[in-house]
Amino acid sequence: MEKSTPKAVKELLVGHGLRLKKRFGQNFLIDDGILKKIMRTAALDEDTLVIEIGPGLGSLTRYLFDAAGHVLAIEIDDNLVEVLEETFGDVKNLTLLHEDVLKVDLDEEIEKLDKSYGKVVVVANLPYYITTPFITNCLEKSERIDRYVLMVQLEVARRLTARPSTKDYNALSVFIHYHTEAEFCFRVPREVFIPKPEVGSAVINLKVKDRHDVPRETSGFHAFIRNAFAQRRKTLVNNLHSAYGVDKVETGDFLEKMGYDRNIRAERIEPDGLVDLAREFFAMNTDVPRENKGRR
């Protein structure tokens, strides 16, 4: 497949007797213009190790190994692994791993390559169903990945890159901005995929912050931000009261002491500010559980 045209993709699918599997969220990119824009965003060189998640038929893969020092491509679908092995079996700077990426220790796989690279970049057209668990798991656990260039669902891209006082800013936004410098790069129309997805997509760029530049995370911080955003129309005082049972008046006094209006909502507070609030909140309320129910 020289170019990612609809005809080339269809011929490859038919030629190998492949059927798309909805459970894996398979939508193949068929526009070389979009692929090239992803590559410009990724800004790869020979000193870069690329980790590609879900290479599919290899449309993006061929661009990646031409530009990077090495590509570690992780594919869960048995049938697609066979196609990739047949297509790229002779490529020296490509390692194909047949695994579920959510069960893979990426830092361990990087070590197995037994070669050091100046930077490690994840470049992927992520299946929508694994977007949040993949990103949060990597940011919490990996010490080797420097950047993520990801195509994700448009709505999710907006949340991941949202800033305070916007409608998309939520607990997940705070988590992302706590760990990375997040950038919304460009939208991707539905028409450039086979099959055409029900929603639009977008490419985002997440540059992992130097750990020395990140405020020390307090125990219970992730639960704190989930609870802080539990009900957007409620004030932070009311959300913390509902989650932890703390006194509303005392919590309001606490917020004013920290420099905030007692009726402020979480959506108006910067990520670093929420880190400070969580730390001081637990210091003031030593009897409340550090981990609590809630969702990002």
Structure description:
The chain has two domains: 6-213, 3-Layer(aba) Sandwich (Rossmann fold); 221-284, rRNA adenine dimethylase, C-terminal domain (Helicase, Ruva Protein, domain 3, Orthogonal Bundle), CATH 1.10.8. 39% of the residues lie in helices and 18% in strands. It contains twelve helices and nine strands. It has helices spanning 6-15, 32-42, 61-67, 78-88, 106-112, 131-141, 154-161, 171-179, 221-228, 236-244, 248-257, 271-284, and strands at residues 28-29, 48-53, 70-75, 94-98, 119-125, 147-153, 180-188, 193-194, 201-208. The protein has a seven-stranded mixed β-sheet. It has a two-stranded antiparallel ribbon with strand order 1-8. Helix 8 (171-179) packs antiparallel against helix 9. The model has no long low-confidence stretch (mean pLDDT 88).
Percent of residues in helices comes to: 25-40%
What name is given to the CATH topology of the largest domain? Answer: Rossmann fold
Portion of residues in beta strands equals 15-25%
The level 1 CATH classification of the largest domain is: Alpha Beta
Largest sheet: 7 strands, mixed
Shape-level CATH architecture of the largest domain: 3-Layer(aba) Sandwich
Residue-averaged pLDDT: 88
User: What is the spatial order of strands in the main beta sheet?
Assistant: 4-3-2-5-6-9-7
Tell the overall outline.
elongated
Low-confidence stretches: none
Compute the number of strand runs. Answer: 9
Tally the structural domains: 2
Number of helices: 12
